[in-house]
Amino acid sequence: MRLKSIAFIDIEVEPNSGKILDMGGIKTDGSSFHSSSIADFRQFFQGAEFICGHNIINHDLKYLRKAGVTLEYGDHDILDTLFLSPLLFPAKPYHALVKDDKLQTQEINNPLNDSIKAKDLFFDEVAAFQRLDSELKQILALLLQTTGEFGGLFKYLGIDERPADVERLIAKRFHGKICERADLSTIIEDYPIELAYCLALINTGHQYSITPPWVTKNYPNVKRTMHLLCGKPCLQGCTYCNTALDINKGLKEFFGFDSYRKYDDEPLQERAAQAAIDNKSILAIFPTGGGKSVTFQVPALMQGKNIRGLTVVISPLQSLMKDQVDNLEKLGIIDAVTINGLLDPIERAKSIERVADGSASILYIAPESLRSNTVERLLLGRNVVRFVIDEAHCLSSWGQDFRVDYLYIADFIKLLQERKNLEEGIPVSCFTATAKPKVVEDICQYFKDNLSLDLEIFHANAARSNLRYDVFEMQNEEEKYNEVRRLLLEKNCPTIIYVSRTKKAYDLADRLTADGFEAKPYHGKMDKDEKSQNQDAFINGEVQVIVATSAFGMGVDKKDVGMVIHYEISDSLENYVQEAGRAGRDENITADCYILFNDDDLSKHFNLLNQTKITIQEINQVWKAVKELTRVRAKVSQSALEIANKAGWSEGIVNIETRVRTAISALETAGYLKRSNNSPRVFANSINTNNAAEAILRVNASHRFDEKQKMQAARVISSLFTHKNTKESVEDAKVTRVDYLADVLGMEKKEAIRIVNLLRLEKIIGDDNDLTAFISKEANSNRSLRILESYQKIEEYLLTMFTNEPKTYNIKELNELGHEWGCKEITPDKIMAILNIWEIMHWITKRVKDPSNEHMEVCCHYSPSDFREKLLQSHGLAQFIVDYLYSKSEKANGDSHSEGKPETSGVVFSEIEILEEYERSIKLFNQQITFDEIENALFYLSKINSIKIDGGFMVIYSPITIERLERDNRKRYKNDDYLKFSQFYESKMQQIHIVGEYCRKMIEDYKAALAFVDDYFRLNYNSFINKYFKGSRQNELKRNITPAKFKQLFGTLSPTQLKIINDKESKYIVVAAGPGSGKTRILVHKLASLLLMEDVKQEQLLMVTFSRSAATEFKKRLLKLIGGAANYVDIKTFHSYCFDLLGRVGTLEKSDQIVKETVVRIANGEVEASRITKTVLVIDEAQDMDADEFALIQTLMEKNEDMRVIAVGDDDQNIYEFRGSDSKYLKQLIEKEGAVMYELVENYRSKSNLVDFSNQFLESIPQRLKRTPILAVDRDNGSIKLVRYRGSNLVTPLVNDVLAAELMGSTCILTKTNEEALQITGLLLKEGVQAKLIQSSEGFNLYNLLEIRFFLNRLTLVEGSYTIYAEVWNQAKRELKERFRGSSNYELTTNLIKDFEALNPKSKYKSDLEILIRESKMEDFTGDSMETIYVSTMHKAKGREFDNVYLMLDQFSLSSDEAKRLLYVAMTRAKANLTIHYNGNYLRNISTRGLQSVTDAANYLPPSQLAMQLSHKDVWLDYFDSRQHMVSQLNCGDVLTFDGETCFNAKGVAVLKVSKLFKEKIEPIIRKNYLPHSAKVRFMVYWQKEDSDQEIIIVLPEIYFERAAESGGSVSLKLPRGRGC
Length: 1621
Description:
Layout: E1 6-13, E2 20-27, E3 32-35, H1 38-45, E4 50-53, H2 56-66, E5 78-80, H3 81-88, E6 98-99, E7 102-103, H4 111-131, H5 134-144, H6 151-157, H7 166-173, H8 184-190, H9 192-204, H10 213-218, H11 221-231, H12 241-244, H13 247-255, H14 268-277, E8 281-285, H15 292-307, E9 309-314, H16 318-330, E10 336-339, H17 345-357, E11 362-365, H18 373-380, E12 383-389, H19 409-419, E13 428-432, H20 437-451, E14 455-459, E15 467-473, H21 477-491, E16 495-498, H22 502-514, E17 519-522, H23 528-539, E18 545-548, E19 563-566, H24 573-580, E20 591-597, H25 599-612, H26 616-629, E21 635-639, H27 640-646, H28 656-669, E22 673-675, H29 692-701, H30 707-723, H31 738-745, H32 749-761, E23 771-778, E24 781-782, H33 783-799, E25 807-810, H34 811-821, H35 828-840, E26 844-848, E27 855-860, H36 864-893, E28 903-909, H37 911-920, H38 922-925, H39 931-943, E29 947-951, E30 959-964, H40 979-1004, H41 1006-1018, H42 1021-1028, H43 1033-1036, H44 1043-1050, H45 1055-1062, E31 1068-1073, H46 1079-1093, E32 1101-1105, H47 1108-1122, E33 1130-1133, ...
Parallel strand pairs: 1-4, 4-5, 8-13, 8-14, 9-11, 9-12, 10-11, 12-13, 15-20, 16-18, 16-19, 17-18, 19-20, 31-35, 31-36, 32-33, 32-34, 34-35, 37-38, 39-44, 39-45, 40-42, 40-43, 41-42, 43-44
Antiparallel strand pairs: 1-2, 2-3, 6-7, 21-30, 22-30, 23-24, 23-28, 23-29, 25-27, 26-27, 46-51, 47-48, 47-50, 48-49, 50-51
């Protein structure tokens, strides 16, 4: 044959403009051309009969025509090696010069070289055609000789086949290789090219040869054609179909089984497998151990063999995927791979390679992997024949494990079909072990709505005839354990014991092993080697017992398990049936399934559900964060932790990253944003060498690469040159992404980035500005630099605090010391951010020591000098980067700034750029840097929010790329959007109730329990509920709590109280609670309800009170009610909460302006969002708020748009107007915020007539909130006595009255002033009555009280620890008792200790105790002894109650509403008996049952004794300096003598002198005929003079004055002996 003249050509173009950059060519005579001259190129064509090139039809000719080059060639004069290659080299190994659609090369684009390669390839293709048998040549010619893509080949070869019966030729040539009844005539007419490609592939007979991705993309009907030829079984049967498409033969071939499993004699498994072969979409509900895997694996393996198809299996469990692949390999089936996070980079790369080259026909991936660019690219390149969705119930919000990432599956399939140009959809197979009718309906509807697929359902009965079930009711843990031992001894068979917590798996396995039962633990989070060892030991019979969480058993095939024990019940019947079904897989044995049931196990499931659910409020918090992040740019890449931080979430939240991703998926599903594929934006393109060899030589000569990096760089270079082609599209650019390079080369992404950067640094590949920094500016200044400098100062301070030894630090104390050190902008969150960064840098190790995150153990890895050097280097580089980027930003954006307003400006850069600029400045900084150091510096700057970085290196920190779609800032995630979640959580809650009901039924009636289970899976859900939960029992299903627990917690509440508990919808609630109405009780129960039943996370609940004692009482009651979860709830005073927000150690002395300052700082953005992000705020005694406190509430409401507020208070008890309190703020919540108001008017405290009396008095107070009178629950009457005096000096007759009374129960005397209370206390004590004044520690902090300080000083700590050891704590208590048991303040001190112990039952931190002491008032720890008469002012008595109350109202005026409310508070303290001594007329018109009114006309003298309590100002402080020895021998309560100037101890030695001020103060008293008589040590406190470093102990006494005897007609005090009880 004459060698015909061919011009082989190639051109290089600029992709964006289409401009021709270079051209090359070679002819068959050897003449060549290489130039950019179009005129010369035209000349080169002269004389050529044909022109040839690789992708010449769709690329070269298109751009030549665009450039005006007219070619006088017809379609059949053009030869394109691209189209010929898969036709003539269809089998592995493919032609060495071709990879997919590109010519393989190790050189940079050179049109002449590529023309030569095209020439070599073409003649190889001609030779390959000539080697074909004559029949196949004829078939190909008949199919292709008239097509534009292939006609040139046949013209060149001189082949011109006359019309023939090509259908008959194909049928004969491929007999037994294709279906005999395939509609060949239609295929020949419609798809001749597709048919030719398919026949070429079938002809190879090689299972793992596949059609190149570019063919399937450009000829999408190749897939359909292949299916019609080899994948669709004919009804009548034929030689091919009866062999290749027979599912029974497939089962035998791959698994060795003769037949499929039947369910109730129904061949459902076989039918489902056949449906898959028939290309149908199916839903199979097969029980655990029922052969789900085989059902999809047989068709997948058959389709992989017959049509080179890939089946993609989506499963939620990575460990299960690995098990499935391993199990197939044990059978010799190597066609399956998995790509998941458990693989190392080499394993991952091998899996990717096998999918890409066709040697894998089953791919297991997690739904999250559908976001991967690598996975997307892989699937685009393969003939994906089916998606298998395992655990398909995850698609339904009514399933037991709804997962929002499953909802992306249909979107991905749709995207894949569009990108592949498929006319027919890809079928799906859905599998689940158990599914209710509603779940089945949801799954089918999902695929119908999203992909127009109709699912054929195969539903097997979940019942297993060889399983016996039983439930034993257990009372406690020990009973359970003993039962387990009994069963193990009795049964002596392979046993799975299921527990719900990973720790329990270890503990129970260890205990059983210690008792002689060889047992191994197993859980999903276990190290994979340990997990495999334990699983294998059980499967191989080396151990007989495995103690596992629900993660065990999926994919595990152990047929002889004779017993499954649920140590703790599953959270749904679905899961229970699956787990129990792992027993008795050998149908010839009978296995036992036991549940050790305790109602508290259900409570654990409810608690876990509450902790793990994502609420609508949390999704809105993430949406708010997204809106803030996208304020400047619509598309951002942020790590989950960064988004969480922006949303105001604490980093300590369990599974925080999963929660963020779930919220993002929810927002994506609702259309608020679009989440792009996970990938770093780092590209390795712009190759600057002529060939790979040159590039590798330069790498080997470079000092920048170590030996390992040189090897890796060579692999990267080879990959880049392999994929480099001038004809690449935008899509093809993905192969130069560093994530794709890392995946296919089996490298860690971080290492791939480092290699790419080193190649850039060596100029082997071009630099690419793949990073964007957002610089913060304000008023023409570099705000980013100011932020950096602030953090650097904090780091310098922290360096002075930490050592090489582990030591525990209180974060608030660190913060406060930092302020003193000069770090004005230090906060606890900034400290934590720095510690986190240092730990990531491996500079320190740290460990959180308590649930509040307030204590942190820190240990430095370097000496102080080395650490300082590291910090200096880090700070220098960080400052250089900020300065450089700021300068670059200024040049790019000009000097325009918004006056005074912070703004963010983006600037693009690369790490190479930073490194080179830094090295140019080497004389200034005198050091060199590495990429690691640059990345660390950028990471540091990003974490401290100095600059925000988008782009490549952030792949190291797992970014989520988000594009915001909803631009309306007012738009919020709504209940309608949340519907699927709410359905799922409602369903999940009901499933826990239902499994509990099953247990109860099984205990009572075995057959009824089995019918219950059968109905659950068979009946319509509503029918099932109506059948088994009749009437009011359906309300039980709506509660996130067991019926028994609900009864325990809320069963005794009143209807009104229950209304408050059940109100889960009102955003704002005001509870107007009358005295004695159980306010504390309802609040504690509401807190319990919020935590247990209302989706509120512990960390997002805040309660504020007005006293430390109230906060302590609430915390103690909540702990008692719900257990340890209460430890994580913030219950604080307003002041304590504000101190926490500002990171300070609070004291009463510093509290005056703290609330106001906090409000300002929150408004200025100086308080971290994580500290103020709350979903519920509860306010106790809300009527007592002042303007600052209400401003704090309003600020929190503004910062938390969805926050619910529950304010409890009583405007009738607002008695602190003198400090700014006003109930108008409580009313404002109702009037302006629309709060729902509940009235609590049932009085559980007082007798009926006492309530009636106070109600009548209340009528004199106008404009009250409550409209309903207070109602007494106790219908009995008490005693009310009114003693009205015409004169004054009521102390004497009141004391006489008390002494004469026969008192039962607790008693308190209430007065208007402290002085009156003091006189009464003194007189009672003088008469030998056990009396105690409820007093304040005014003028000093409790921390300085001698008894308190003594106890603190005994709490010695081990070096580096803040925790108090139990023996140290107990010894300190013993020493306190021994030293101070006679002290009048011993009871106060022990009460404080008891409170602290109640709040901290386990770990006790000394710093926590010190904070409690500093923030507390003395009256917080007054006891409640029945033997003691307490004396108090009316103000201090608020919140207390006593059986007997005496009121002394001497000259008491009711001229103001505040005074009326004060009296109302005082009289409502009485439970049974109320006595009022007064000298006014304001009570005369009140009448009620049992009221005794007495008028006393006598004139009373002032009391015979006066008492005065001295403060610091009243004693000569410096005098104590010389008296310390004498003072140290005193105890509080010791009696002293007093001569008017000096106090003497019992030995007559002077111990204190009064001040000049006090002497002046007592002169009027002495003139009234009162003489100094005695004194008593009231307090002993530490005091430090301003200019001294030393503390001394001072004495603050009580001094008594006796009235000298006088004559006159006045009645004197009659003091009878004893108390007269």
